[in-house]
Amino acid sequence: GENVEQHPSTLSVQEGDSAVIKCTYSDSASNYFPWYKQELGKRPQLIIDIRSNVGEKKDQRIAVTLNKTAKHFSLHITETQPEDSAVYFCAASKGTGRRALTFGSGTRLQVQP
Amino acid sequence: DSGVTQTPKHLITATGQRVTLRCSPRSGDLSVYWYQQSLDQGLQFLIQYYNGEERAKGNILERFSAQQFPDLHSELNLSSLELGVSALYFCASSVEFGGLAGSEQYFGPGTRLTVT
């Protein structure tokens, strides 16, 4: 089945700096890659997603890039703010058959004011 | 607020007992997924229902079961509970029309299950 690896497990940045989180996936049939933000004790919240027919997608300070050949995708957060502090999860799924998400292990992002 | 609701918020029970977790999807969403989140296993897919029918199974224990009712709400039944199943249980819903691309999944607030 699908396997998603996520790095780093923890990331500490200064407010205003950029943060990058990277994921790799194993199943070349996966074609949907969402990113979720989870604050302590809260639900995972979808923040951005990308499909395999697109190489990059941006939403204000957040962007995601996808390299299908290398089977990896990344989350970029620019001008980080203390409220960006949370655990971020990448995930992958296929468009047909099983569409359940396979999650990475998460990255704890700490933005220091 | 994602529009997905889950009850109860917290559940404390003893080993060997049986519990039922409930999920109501967003209006218009036909698909419900159940996920388990534990410290050592992360977020793991348990089971999916689409318009009342089981669509896919993940790492769900045999003594766990689920169903989706005609009004599209779903219930996850956990029986013969052991300490190791203490975790956060989330359901997520999505529209899932046809087509090749995945559909966005929106998570409910979760049920925290503690088995003592």
Produce the secondary structure layout:
The complex is a heterodimer of chains A (113) and B (116).
Chain A: E1 4-7, E2 10-14, E3 19-25, E4 30-38, E5 45-51, E6 56-59, E7 62-67, E8 72-77, E9 86-94, E10 102-103, E11 107-112
Parallel strand pairs in A: 2-11
Antiparallel strand pairs in A: 1-3, 3-8, 4-5, 4-9, 6-7, 7-8, 9-10, 9-11
Chain B: E1 5-7, E2 10-13, E3 19-24, E4 31-38, E5 42-50, E6 53-57, E7 64-68, E8 74-78, E9 87-94, E10 106-107, E11 111-115
Parallel strand pairs in B: 2-11
Antiparallel strand pairs in B: 1-3, 3-8, 4-5, 4-9, 5-6, 7-8, 9-10, 9-11
Structure keywords:
heterodimer, A: 113 residues, mainly beta, 6-stranded mixed β-sheet, 11 strands, B: 116 residues, 7-stranded mixed β-sheet, 4-stranded antiparallel β-sheet
Please, could you describe this protein's structure?
The complex is a heterodimer of chains A (113) and B (116). Chain A is mainly β. In chain A, strand 4 (30-38) and strand 5 form a beta hairpin. The mean pLDDT of chain A is 94. Chain A has strands spanning 4-7, 10-14, 19-25, 30-38, 45-51, 56-59, 62-67, 72-77, 86-94, 102-103, 107-112. With 116 residues, chain B is mainly β. Helix content of chain B is 0%, strand content 52%. Chain B is built from no helices and eleven strands. In chain B, the strands form two sheets. In chain B, strands 2, 4, 5, 6, 9, 10 and 11 form a seven-stranded mixed β-sheet that branches. In chain B, a hairpin with a 3-residue loop joins strand 4 and strand 5 (42-50). Classes of the chains: A mainly beta (113), B mainly beta (116). The A-B interface holds A 31-32, 34, 36, 42-46, 49, 51-53, 89, 93-106 and B 2, 31, 33, 35, 42-45, 48, 55-56, 58, 90, 92, 94, 96, 99-110.
